[in-house]
Design a protein that fits this description.
Elements (H helix, E strand, L loop, with lengths): L17 H9 L11 E8 L4 E9 L5 E7 L4 E7 L4 E7 L4 E9 L5 E7 L4 E7 L4 E7 L4 E9 L7 E7 L4 E8 L2 E8 L4 E9 L5 E7 L4 E7 L4 E7 L9 E4 L5 E7 L4 E7 L4 E8 L7 E5 L5 E7 L4 E7 L4 E7 L4 E9 L5 E7 L4 E8 L34 H9 L1 H7 L2 H4 L9 H9 L2
Antiparallel strand pairs: 1-28, 2-3, 3-4, 4-5, 6-7, 7-8, 8-9, 10-11, 11-12, 12-13, 14-15, 15-16, 16-17, 18-19, 19-20, 20-21, 22-23, 23-24, 24-25, 26-27, 27-28
Helix pairs in contact: 2-5
Length: 443
């Protein structure tokens, strides 16, 4: 998907009469979004067409590590922040490696990656030993290895566990590395199942997997109880399709984000021990919402997702009574192939694809920095509705038309002196006239 952005240029003096700006703003349609934090966005890799199938993990220092597909050279790549800059490595360039990759870090912070080799139709696994990548073929029986998800066992050695799809039979499979050998299980073979799997291990090391039953368009969930796989249908209402993302809370109960295709809804399901609670998080319209779920220290869900209808990256957080949704990035067709992780403070970090430019991008959110009084205002700007956007520009305690006028006249000063993310109302990464429009339409 590509979008062409058309921007009007305006010749402005120091003050645009209220009637003129009102007429211009009323003629423009704009949709706002809420944010809880101060977002900063950067491009990680722009060499070729990169950033497909991103998978993000944070080390003990909170530094990001990202595995992703180089779509131009069809190879698996890896980027890690070393504290001062990004370091890059090519993991596997044999065949067409890197599709459907999933990343985890061991206790020493070394990366472990499961992925699909599209040329041979094999599930592969790469581990960094400190000096080189050790690559193994995990499963080569049939066309196997799409929709992989990796987790590392709590066995001291950090041995890998992988869920994946067997495309030959339409089965969900599970592989575990035990005693220096790979062991395999078919988890579910009822119909066309196993796509978009997501794996998590509980405190006992037992695997839990969410996945899609493509034949019936249902969301399913499988849990190993120590002897058998227990399989449940989570959502059979509607037409579930696209990414599922699973996380377990402190009690080992599953939480899943996923997409209901015909309704255009991002949904969330949580098991309370006896039944599933299902919420609609956001209605994004057409297409599917590639999504990624994480739970904070209190077990509250956080979800990053792609708004295909508008080509943007969004983030949703449950505050205990409602979902708070913010648009993180709208600079082009961005947000697909996203992966979410929370740092030790519960602050979100997201890797994702910039499809417009073929880049790998990374967004991080921090507590909002201090603001200054805007020249012409009465006091410090405030956030009147606690959405992370400072709509009371003049500091008089309310959002009104005077804020629109002041913002318009002081755009250059705000851009150079204030935290841009707090006044970048439309989340396109800069202060511009579109933010004036947004502010007016959201009074």
């Amino acid at each position: 998907m590509r979008y062409s952005l058309i921007r009007d240029r305006w010749t402005r003096g120091t003050l645009l009469p209220r009637l003129l700006i009102g007429a211009l703003l009323l003629a423009t349609l704009c949709v706002g979004a809420a944010s809880a934090l101060y977002w900063q966005v950067e491009t990680v890799d722009s060499a070729g067409s990169v950033g497909w199938y991103t998978s993000l993990a944070l080390d003990s220092a909170g530094h990001p590590h990202i595995s992703y597909l180089d779509g131009e050279n069809l190879e698996l790549r890896y980027a890690a922040w070393n504290g001062t800059g990004w370091a890059y490595r090519t993991v596997d360039s044999a065949g067409t490696a890197g599709w459907f990759n999933s990343l985890a870090l061991d206790s020493a912070g070394n990366p472990r990656i499961s992925y699909y080799d599209g040329m041979d139709g094999n599930l592969k696994y790469a581990a960094w030993d400190g000096s080189a990548w050790r690559i193994r073929t995990v499963d080569s029986v049939g066309d196997v290895g799409t929709y992989t998800s990796i987790a590392l066992a709590l066995d001291g050695a950090g041995n890998p566990r992988i869920s994946y799809c067997d495309m030959s039979g339409g089965d969900l499979k599970y592989a575990a590395y035990v005693d220096s050998m790979w062991l395999y299980q078919t988890v579910d073979s009822e119909g066309d199942v196993g796509s978009y799997s997501s794996l998590a291990l509980d405190a006992a090391g037992h695997p839990h997997i969410s996945y899609i039953d493509a034949g019936n368009s249902d969301l399913k969930y499988a849990e190993w109880n120590g002897n058998d796989w227990i399989i449940r249908t989570v959502d059979a209402a509607g037409q579930v399709y696209g990414t599922s993302s699973l996380a377990l809370d402190g009690a080992g109960r599953p939480h899943i984000s996923y997409f209901d295709d015909p309704r255009g809804d991002l949904k969330y399901a949580a098991y309370d021990g006896s039944s599933w609670r299902i919420d609609t998080v956001d209605s994004v319209g057409i297409g599917w919402a590639d999504n990624s779920l994480a739970l904070d220290s209190a077990g509250s869900p956080r979800i990053s997702y792609y708004d295909q209808a508008n080509g943007g990256l969004k983030y949703a957080a449950w505050n205990g009574s409602a979902w708070q949704v913010t648009t993180v990035d709208t600079a082009g067709d961005v947000g697909d192939h996203n992966s979410l992780a929370l740092d030790n403070g519960g602050n979100p970090r997201i890797s994702y694809l910039d499809a417009t430019n073929g880049d790998l991008k990374y967004a991080r959110a921090e507590p909002a920095p201090p603001v200054q009084a805007v020249p012409g205002g009465t006091s410090l700007p405030t956030d009147t509705d606690a959405d992370g956007l400072y709509d009371d520009v003049n500091g008089n305690g309310r959002a009104d038309f005077a804020d629109v006028v002041l913002f318009f006249n002081q755009m250059s000063w705000i851009s150079g002196n204030e935290p841009v993310g707090l006044f970048d109302y439309n989340r396109n990464g800069r202060i511009d006239f579109a933010d004036v429009v947004w502010l007016f339409n959201n009074l």
